[in-house]
């Protein structure tokens, strides 16, 4: 059968040489680059990209998922680029550039896919629900809960997706502060600041840090130089908000904590997976995504073990397949419980496809030449420090992952200290407004009426103070990196 397929492919390459089997001929095609910044294709691509991003920002208003306009924009941009290059003799340069951007996205996609699959598994096993119940039942004061939720989410967001960590702590705050709007509003704001700060000093904390690590601008351990600046960014606003908090205690709620069999081992395997990702990158020179995929196999085999031992031990009447949510427990079928691909299917595919469109669209604009022009203005006419601070401030309006990829595509010639500064400003700059980061947007929906855009805006000067304080601490501690 294999021999038949090989012969069939060989016959097809002879009859239809245009199918692309003749690789040597394609590689022999001339390689060149065309400046399209003043060409109709460049203007068209620029308008398409800006329109798509505006549509994505107005997702809630126009009720159109943000991935749709971005996917369309990426397709149109690369279509016109390839068309123009083909008219000039060869589309090979465009093809090479497209594949380079596609590879960067695939590495990011695989990394996030494995990470979120583990998080979905932990959620199914009741780990996050157990943490929420434990926090609510501690009979702490509002001020103690404010610091505890902020501190936990600061640490948690360094290894867990920021949106997941923020919503988890948001659930605790809403449950405890439903009768005290002032506490709920301040605690949600504190969670947003802490989540963004905690996700900045670790390459695993967010899309922008993943981009920097993935492109080799900073090594894995170099990110931890930002720990103290990020801590200051979280502590300074929190300390000032502390005095506006109520001093009394909420009523305690007691609930039983359930963890499914294997929950602790899944946490352990997730830790092993992170170690594999770092080891593959630092020791072997392989993409971190390769280590994450190796870790996914561990989870798959562990679920296979759980499924088989579940049948052997006859636990049908003893062990319940529980999926915990904010309301309690909701039954899930046994097949769904042990299906790893069901957990993959529950990823935030709209967000992942949005980043495909954003990365490919920005990559297209970079290939056209627009990003080189912006880079010459931003990093040529201004100092790198001022440029990075301005880029960080703009992340209050524009997604930081998109901005980081745009800067990486510009290829600015800046030292390690400036890459650390850019990582810091882009990571914590999103805290300035309630629309500046995924955790804030998620909490706007989760804590409706308690945490609002205006309640966040009121504390913007305090957050801005923390922003510049963290920059000052970075220059003080990491002066040798510049």
UniProtKB/TrEMBL annotation:
Q: Which InterPro entries match?
A: Cit_transptr-like_dom, NhaD-like
Molecular function as annotated in GO: antiporter activity
Q: Does the keyword Cytoplasm apply?
A: no
Question: Per the record's keyword annotation, is Protein biosynthesis included, yes or no?
Answer: no
| Compartment annotation | Membrane
Residues annotated as domain Citrate transporter-like: 54-427
Signal peptide coordinates: 1-22
Annotated NCBIfam families: NhaD_1
Q: Which family does it belong to?
A: Belongs to the NhaD Na(+)/H(+) (TC 2.A.62) antiporter family.
Under what name is this protein listed? Na+/H+ antiporter NhaD-like permease
- Give the organism, scientific name: Methylomicrobium album BG8
């Amino acid at each position: 059968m294999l021999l038949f397929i090989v012969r069939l492919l060989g016959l097809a390459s002879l009859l239809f040489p245009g199918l692309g089997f003749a690789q040597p001929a394609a590689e022999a095609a001339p390689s060149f680059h065309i400046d399209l910044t003043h060409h109709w294709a460049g203007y068209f691509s620029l308008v398409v990209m800006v329109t798509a991003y505006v549509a994505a920002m107005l997702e809630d208003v126009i009720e159109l998922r943000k991935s749709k306009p971005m996917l369309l924009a990426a397709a149109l941009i690369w279509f016109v680029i390839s068309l123009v290059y083909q008219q000039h003799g060869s589309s090979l340069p465009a093809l090479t550039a497209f594949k380079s951007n596609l590879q960067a996205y695939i590495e990011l996609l695989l990394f996030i896919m494995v990470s979120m699959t583990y998080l979905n598994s932990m959620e199914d096993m009741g780990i996050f629900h157990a943490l929420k119940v434990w926090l609510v039942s501690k009979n702490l004061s509002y001020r103690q809960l404010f610091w505890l939720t902020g501190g936990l989410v600061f640490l948690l967001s360094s290894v867990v997706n920021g949106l997941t960590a923020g919503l988890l702590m948001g659930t605790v705050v809403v449950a405890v502060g439903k009768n005290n709007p002032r506490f709920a509003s301040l605690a949600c704001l504190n969670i947003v600041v802490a989540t963004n700060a905690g996700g900045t000093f670790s390459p695993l904390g967010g899309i922008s840090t993943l981009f920097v690590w993935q492109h080799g601008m900073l090594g894995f351990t170099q990110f931890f130089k930002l720990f103290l600046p990020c801590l200051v960014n979280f502590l300074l606003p929190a300390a000032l908000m502390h005095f506006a908090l109520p001093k009394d205690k909420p009523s305690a709620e007691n609930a039983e904590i359930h963890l499914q069999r294997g929950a602790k081992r899944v946490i352990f395997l997730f830790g092993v997976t992170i170690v594999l990702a770092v080891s593959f990158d630092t020791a072997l020179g392989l993409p971190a995504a390769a280590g994450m995929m190796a870790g996914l196999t561990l989870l798959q085999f562990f679920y296979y073990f759980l499924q088989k031992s579940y049948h052997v031990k006859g636990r049908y009447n003893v062990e319940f397949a529980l999926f915990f949510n904010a309301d309690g427990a909701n039954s899930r079928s046994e097949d769904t419980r042990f299906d790893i691909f069901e957990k993959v299917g529950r990823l935030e595919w709209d967000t992942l496809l949005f980043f495909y469109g954003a990365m490919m669209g920005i990559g297209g604009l970079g290939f056209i030449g627009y990003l080189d022009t912006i880079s010459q203005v931003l990093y040529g006419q201004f100092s790198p420090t001022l440029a990075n601070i301005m880029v960080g401030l703009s992340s209050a309006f524009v997604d930081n992952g998109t901005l980081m990829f745009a800067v990486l595509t510009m290829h600015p010639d800046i030292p390690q200290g400036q890459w650390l500064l850019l990582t810091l400003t882009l990571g914590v700059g999103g805290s300035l407004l309630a629309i500046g980061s995924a955790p804030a947007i998620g909490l706007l929906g989760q804590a409706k009426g308690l945490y609002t855009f205006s309640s966040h805006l009121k504390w913007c000067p305090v957050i801005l103070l923390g922003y510049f304080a963290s920059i000052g601490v970075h220059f003080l501690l990491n002066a040798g990196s510049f």
